[in-house]
């Protein structure tokens, strides 16, 4: 059994740090390369590793939340990020929030003292050349959504796919189905005809009809709402086909009715033509979460909640994530990568973190752990990849990357996890059903991950 392998990790963010720590704990030699001291991107402010460039929150620690489930799995895998987050946490209720500087310094100092981790300050533009330079057996590229121009160009030219690298300037909100009053909505695809004995409408899209008054008030709210201002490193050159809805609203009150909110072909079950329509598209095959089609926007998060909760049926809406406008770089994973996140063209090159198409701090870190287990699995001589169960959060994230029809970043949410069937005969209110389903999904996921960890991770990877 070969045990003298060396792994090169490019990127000292959360994913790179988690992968480095996991592999070093398993006795693997690691070279961790971070280039921001040589050439930082505009979002980076610290010289230390594991910098949190946006919020200081690692989100919910509640065991019945999707983020709580994900943290359970990460702790099982020995997460350094969560360990140091606990040490540097600040009061934040049910969320795990940290002092960013203390957190980053703590992670950096810990890794500096690891005997089998070498920290290197160097800017990288060719991972294969770096692999040769450091004589590494495997490479992990964990460079995040603001990957350097040099590496971005290498990905575009060397991964054999003209559209394998995606740039998104706008993301629409996603809402949980359970929080919507669907009595004010109807399923129908554009131009579909009524079907069935009871004249039921069938379709993949859930439609929200607006009256003239509701629509005009909505447009007015969009125009007057507070909006996120562009930072000096953000690109506000939008694709014309992907304009924020607030930008379209500013072009004229009728603009949205002739674009993402056009009512053509969407008569109600009563045969009436709405003045305008918001279409909701399933975010996943389970149908537990819906995307607000065409509703990418620049509104601040509080304003999005205020304005969107005035939409008919959205009064009690719970958003999985809100819309945003920014420049993101990530790979088309299901086209370019194998299911262990290794490159199809370069089998010894792996990708981890946000560049793979996940969104969020813990999501990024968990993919670093996932890739580290896959590499250690190879080093141990196991030919088959480690398939994480879809009922677990890490498994659900990986499944999302390889099944989503139109790749776009996603955070962990219950919409990615197979739904739970509630016991029959139990009369519960809507919020009680929602809470019970989350509790049952979390209990099931934790149990399955514990069994998977014991039977596959511990056994296959020979971990103590």
- Kindly state the percentage of residues in helix: 25-40%
Structural category:
alpha/beta
Beta-strand level of the residues, as a percent range? 5-15%
Poorly predicted residue ranges? 194-200, 232-237
Q: CATH top level of the largest domain?
A: Alpha Beta
Largest sheet: 6 strands, antiparallel
Kindly state the mean pLDDT as a whole number? 86
What's the N-to-C terminus distance?
17 Å
List the helices and strands in order.
EHEEHHEEHEHEHEEEEHHEEHEEHEHHH
CATH superfamily of the largest domain: FAD/NAD(P)-binding domain
Count up the helices: 13
CATH topology description of the largest domain: FAD/NAD(P)-binding domain
Strands of the largest sheet, in order across it? 10-11-12-13-9-14
Number of domains: 2
Shape summary: globular
Radius of gyration: 23 Å
CATH architecture identity of the largest domain: 3-Layer(bba) Sandwich
């Amino acid at each position: 059994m070969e045990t003298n392998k060396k792994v090169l990790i490019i990127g000292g963010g959360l994913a790179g740090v988690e992968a480095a720590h996991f592999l070093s704990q398993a006795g693997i030699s690691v070279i961790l390369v971070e280039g921001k001291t040589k050439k930082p991107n505009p979002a980076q402010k610290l010289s230390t590793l594991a910098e949190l460039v946006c919020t200081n929150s690692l989100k919910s620690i509640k065991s019945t939340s999707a983020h709580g489930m994900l943290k359970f799995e990460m702790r099982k895998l020995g997460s350094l990020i969560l360990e140091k987050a606990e040490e540097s946490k600040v009061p934040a209720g049910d969320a795990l929030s940290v002092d960013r500087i203390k957190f980053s310094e703590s992670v950096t100092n810990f890794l500096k003292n690891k005997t089998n981790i070498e920290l290197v300050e160097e800017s990288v533009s060719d991972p294969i050349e770096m692999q040769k330079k450091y004589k590494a057996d495997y490479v992990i590229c964990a460079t995040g959504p603001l990957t350097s121009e040099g590496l971005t160009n290498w990905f575009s030219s060397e991964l054999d796919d003209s559209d394998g690298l995606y740039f998104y300037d706008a993301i629409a909100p996603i809402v949980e189905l359970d929080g919507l009053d669907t009595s004010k909505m109807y399923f129908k695809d554009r131009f579909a005809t009524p079907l069935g004995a009871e004249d039921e409408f069938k379709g993949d899209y859930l439609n929200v009809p607006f009256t003239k008054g509701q629509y005009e008030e909505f447009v007015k709210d969009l125009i007057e709402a507070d909006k996120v201002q562009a930072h000096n490193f953000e690109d506000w050159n939008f694709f014309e086909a992907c304009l924020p809805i607030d930008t379209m609203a500013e072009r004229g009150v009728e603009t949205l009715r002739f674009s993402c909110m056009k009512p053509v072909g969407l008569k109600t079950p009563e045969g009436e033509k709405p003045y305008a329509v918001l279409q909701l598209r399933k975010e996943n095959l389970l149908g537990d979460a819906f995307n607000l089609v065409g509703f990418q926007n620049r509104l601040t998060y509080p304003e999005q909640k205020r304005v969107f909760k005035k939409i008919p049926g959205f009064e009690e809406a719970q958003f999985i994530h809100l819309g945003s406008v920014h420049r993101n770089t990530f790979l088309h994973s299901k086209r370019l990568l194998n299911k262990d996140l290794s490159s199809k063209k370069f089998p010894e090159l792996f990708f981890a973190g946000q560049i793979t198409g996940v969104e969020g701090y813990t999501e990024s870190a968990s993919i670093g752990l996932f890739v580290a287990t896959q590499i250690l699995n190879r080093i141990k001589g196991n030919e088959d990849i480690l398939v994480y169960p879809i009922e677990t959060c890490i498994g659900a994230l990986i499944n999302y990357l390889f099944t989503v029809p139109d790749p776009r970043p996603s955070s962990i949410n219950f919409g990615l996890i197979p739904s739970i069937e509630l016991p029959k005969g139990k009369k519960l209110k809507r919020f009680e059903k929602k809470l019970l389903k989350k509790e049952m999904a979390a209990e099931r996921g934790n149990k399955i991950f514990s069994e998977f960890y014991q039977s596959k991770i511990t056994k296959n990877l020979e971990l103590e």
